From TrEMBL:
This is DUF4468 domain-containing protein. It comes from Hymenobacter polaris. Keywords: Signal. Residues 109-199 form the DUF4468 domain. Residues 1-18 form the signal peptide. InterPro entries: DUF4468 (IPR027823). It holds the Pfam family DUF4468.
Length: 269
């Protein structure tokens, strides 16, 4: 563990060693991985064995980032440093506000990506192949597939999960699906995507209600609107929108035959 921490510390600015962790971004809840996470009150403390830990699977709230490898977490009224690698699915982009369409006011990921030299037919084939590899017959319904106009539309579902306590230990459990709609438009040398209409459906999971549209700040997943329901709903949304960004990146990699780089503008199509 000490070698692991010293490796992470190598990326930490020397001037930051004596600083106390500061909250610099909106809180995002993550779960500790299979190993407990060491917690440090100051950067300099990371040179010594940790005295405080967050248990495996425990919820911690990330409120800042000291470096690419160290994050600031709030827990039980205090702020600590912990390795980002100790948290499941940590992604700095989770703290960004989701993009809202000015027209529909729904969470919408959209953009136009240039693919020089690729014909409309090539791009349509790539889009169709990506859909078949990313979805299966159970989690996608293709509503329109028109090669002549270059339009591919579908309604998809992605699995959702929530954390619930079992004998005092939090465990990830199946929580239905998050539905979405995806439209892909292709022309010679470029394509446009619109990923939107995110809705949680509990699909009959016992003791769990459907949350509905992800734009909602609060919902009653358990039949009440208390803190437990709010935290669970927030975690579910964070996971779902991280997955949406993964879909967009996967589509770009398949369409451009290159690794996805940046989010694209929705104009110029």
């Amino acid at each position: 563990m000490k070698t692991f921490l010293l490796t992470l510390l190598g990326a930490l600015p020397l001037a930051a060693l004596a600083q106390q962790p500061e909250a610099t971004r909106p809180p995002v809840t993550y779960r500790v991985g299979l190993r407990r996470a060491p917690l440090y009150r100051r950067a300099a403390d990371t040179l010594r064995p940790a005295e405080v830990f967050a248990p495996s699977q425990a919820a911690v709230s990330v409120v800042g980032e000291l470096s690419s490898r160290w994050v600031v977490v709030a827990r039980e009224g205090f702020r600590y440093l912990t390795p980002a690698a100790a948290l499941v699915g940590y992604n700095p982009a989770d703290a960004d506000a989701p993009p809202l369409s000015a027209t529909t006011h729904r969470i919408t990921y959209e953009g136009v990506v240039q693919v020089p030299g690729a014909s409309q037919a090539d791009l349509f084939d790539r889009a169709r192949r990506w859909v078949s590899q990313t979805y299966n017959q159970q989690n996608a319904e293709v509503e329109r597939e028109d090669a002549a106009s270059g339009l591919l539309q579908l309604r998809g579902t992605r699995l959702a999960q929530v954390y619930q306590d079992y004998q005092g230990v939090p465990r990830a459990t199946y929580a239905g699906v998050v539905r979405h709609s995806l439209s892909i438009y292709v022309k010679d040398g470029r394509y446009k995507y619109v990923l939107t209409d995110f809705v949680h459906d509990a699909k009959g999971v016992p003791n769990l209600r459907s949350g509905g549209a992800l734009e909602q700040k609060r919902t009653s997943l358990f039949g009440y609107g208390g803190l437990g329901s709010y935290q669970t709903w927030t975690e579910l949304k964070t996971d779902a929108l991280r997955d949406a960004r993964t879909l967009v990146a996967g589509l770009e990699a398949a369409m451009t035959l290159q690794k996805a780089r940046i989010q694209r503008s929705a104009s110029d199509f």
